[in-house]
Amino acid sequence: MKTPAIAITASLVFISFLCGKAQAREVSYIQAENRITLKGFSRSPYFDEQLLKLEIFNGIKIEINAPAASIFDNNKKVMLIFYALPNMNTIAETIGRQKIPGLDWHYEIQQIGAQVRFLRNLVSDKNIVIAYLESPEESWQWWRMKHPGDDFIFKQVVDSVANIFRNFSTEIVLDGHSGGGSFVFGFINSVNKIPNNIKRLAFLDSDYDYSDSLHHGGKISRWLKAEPDHYLCSIAYDDRHVIINGKDIGTINGGTFYRSKLMENRLSEDFHFQNESDSLFIKYTALNGRIKFFLKRNPDHLMWHTLLVEKNGFIESILSGTKYENEGYQLWGWDAYSEYIQP
Predict the structure, then answer these.
(1) CB of 74 closer than 8 Å to CB of 31
(2) What is the dihedral of CA 130, 131, 132, 134, to 10 degrees?
(3) How many alpha carbons fall within 13 Å on the CB side of residue 310?
(4) CA–CA separation, 226 vs 140, rounded Å?
(5) DSSP state string for 270-292
(6) φ and ψ at 153, to 5 degrees?
(7) Could you tell me the residue ranges of all domains in the chain?
(8) Contact present, 110 and 159 (Cβ < 8 Å)
(9) What are phi and psi for residue 170, nearest 5 degrees?
(10) CB-hemisphere CA count at 13 Å for 173?
(11) HSE (CB half, 13 Å, CA atoms) of 122?
């Protein structure tokens, strides 16, 4: 296996990969009355958030967004969310903006920045940090096709960004929308055992690359059994028949509905699932809610790919199975985060 030389250079941050192992110097910080200012991070004009932008390995972009120093509490754990971008979206588009005339529609369809701010306001016991991950091809699937055998890079990226917060008690979430799920499965491919510091795996209509033959189900099952604070959330819709301009563009065996069912079927060998259905969703739940599959019904054969995210899908992907689930929001309800959308 080849080991590339990778360098991340930013204020007070230098990360290099030697012999396949990540080495890093953590970001220093200033503490005042348990409030944390991250040195080397810039201050955003939006909500005083703390930002660090990095670029590695021939163009992979990472933007880390941490809470404002006034609310970053050293007494709380850091929840570090890795959000792998969907195909053909930039980090700025994924973060989102308020709608104005002439604005590119990509800025309106995810609003992950606002959904993160909603989470920060709701979840009182965590400092929520998000790392947006953008491939130079604007598709993690294309990146993996271009770099076969390099899935180990994904674990190095996760380990190195997590190392920035090594002075804090940190738990990791791997999440993504659409082709972003390919990053998550690339990470899973790169390890024999999913590390215990990964506390949540989430798929926002993004599990296209799930494969029984690659032992994804077995790895996920063993990881779920390893610790009582490991969570899995998968949100998808029935994309088997999607009619656009009179043409069926759906896929029976390749879409997220099919892949979600494959994953659920594999996990049902090890866990007892309860099936709960209503007019909107088919739901599969196990381990007292630690495992949740949401499959959106689609009787009119419409395209719900991005609406699953926009309608509080990201929030649900982070909170499913916890005490905060459905607190101030509902999956597929009106957006709960409108007041947090940046100009």
Answers:
(1) yes
(2) -170
(3) 14
(4) 28
(5) TSPPEEEE-SSEEEEEEGGGTEE
(6) -60, -35
(7) 30-236+262-340
(8) no
(9) -125, 135
(10) 30
(11) 21
Q: Pairing state of beta strands 170-176 and 231-237?
A: unpaired
Tokens of 160: 């190195």
Q: Beta strands 60-66 and 126-134: pairing type?
A: antiparallel
Residues shown for the chain? 343
**d(Cα 290, Cα 285) in Å, to the nearest integer?**
8
Mind listing the pLDDT tens digit of every residue in the chain (343 residues)?
A: 333 333 333 333 334 432 333 334 455 667 776 788 999 999 999 999 999 999 987 789 999 999 999 999 999 999 999 999 999 999 999 999 998 888 888 888 899 999 999 999 999 999 999 999 999 999 999 999 999 999 999 999 999 999 999 999 999 999 999 999 999 999 999 999 999 999 999 999 999 999 999 999 999 999 999 999 999 999 999 999 999 888 888 888 889 999 999 999 999 999 999 999 999 999 999 999 999 999 999 999 998 999 999 999 999 999 999 999 999 999 999 999 999 999 9
How many DSSP H helices and E strands does the chain contain? 9, 18
Q: How many CA atoms lie within 13 A of 266 on its CB side?
A: 18
pTM above 0.85, yes or no: yes
CA separation for the pair 286, 268 (Å, rounded): 9
Which of 129, 177, 156, 140 minimizes the C-alpha distance to 59?
140
**Could you tell me the two tokens for 284?**
């599969």
Q: How would DSSP label each residue in 138-159?
A: S-HHHHHHHSTT-THHHHHHHH
Fold of 30-236+262-340: Rossmann fold (3.40.50)
The Cα diameter of the chain in Å comes to 61
